[in-house]
TrEMBL record:
Family to which this protein belongs: Belongs to the ABC transporter superfamily.
Name assigned to this protein: ABC transporter
ABC transporter domain location: 6-235
Length: 236
């Protein structure tokens, strides 16, 4: 593998007596789609919170392009080039798309709308910047969330269970967007528990069970049952 964009070594996090992440090792290559796979409670969200600066680890280290990385906040993660699309969207319903963007980034209405349209065309995320969020479908809202991240020019985009809100035809479109992003040099961390999706889209997968890594592999070279054994300790 080429020198990793992001490396985690021995990353651990507990909430009281619950050890949500146990000594996690993980390397994300540049220009790759890397899955973090695990069933409910395996520790995926906790790990993403550590990588996106929402929470801080109790032990272990992170490195970004070979240098030690300590993230005090999500804003700091964004400044370093790490952006996260959360499973539950955080857009203001009564504002337009571009007004939502103006809440979190500098720039005039017209300038932001133009960037949004350009990025939308480039990555298959077309959305009208002047429409109110309450009029958008779930798929369009997700596009806005992804675009909002892309406007910070990330090198790593984290998506938390992005297909859970989408009908099947939009999953195909999302995957096309992710491939385009990878081809333009953005790495993706793709959190999921859906084995077939991971086999379809991801270059590598790290599997978590009870907060610990049970394996890292190239999912397209393994069948779903092999992934299930690592994820839940048996076949499905
Ligand atoms: P899901 O898909 O259900 O979100 P997950 O794989 O993302 O699951 P986490 O949300 O990271 O798993 O949770 C890992 C463990 O840590 C679980 O036992 C969970 O109950 C616990 N946990 C997570 N966040 C907290 C918290 N803020 N306080 C206490 N326990 C927590």
């Amino acid at each position: 593998m080429s020198a990793p964009l992001l490396s985690l070594r021995g990353l651990s996090k507990s909430y009281g007596r619950i050890q949500a992440n146990r000594a996690i090792d993980l390397d994300v290559a540049p220009r790759s789609i890397h899955a973090v796979l695990g069933e409910n409670g395996a520790g995926k969200s906790t790990l993403m919170k550590l990588i996106s600066g929402v929470e801080q680890p109790d032990a272990g280290m992170m490195a970004w392009k070979g240098e030690a990385l300590a993230l005090a906040s999500p804003a700091e993660a964004r400044r370093r080039g790490i952006a996260m699309v959360f499973q539950h969207f955080s857009l203001f319903e009564t504002l337009t798309v571009v007004e939502n963007l103006r809440l979190v980034m500098p720039g005039g209405r017209r300038e932001l709308a133009e960037r949004l349209i350009r990025l939308g065309r480039e990555f298959g995320l077309e959305v009208d910047p002047f429409v109110h969020v309450h009029a958008l479908s779930v798929g369009e809202r997700q596009r806005v969330e992804i675009l909002r991240c892309l406007m910070t020019d990330p090198e790593l985009l984290i998506l938390d269970e992005p297909t859970s809100v989408l009908p099947p035809q939009l999953v195909v479109a999302l995957f096309e967007t992710l491939r385009r992003l990878r081809d333009k040099g953005v790495s993706i961390l793709f959190i999921s528990h859906k084995l077939e999706e991971i086999r379809a889209i991801c270059d590598r997968a790290t599997i978590l069970r009870d907060g610990a890594v049970t394996g890292t592999l190239e999912p397209r070279h393994h069948d779903a049952q092999a992934l299930a054994r690592l994820m839940i300790g048996r076949e499905m």
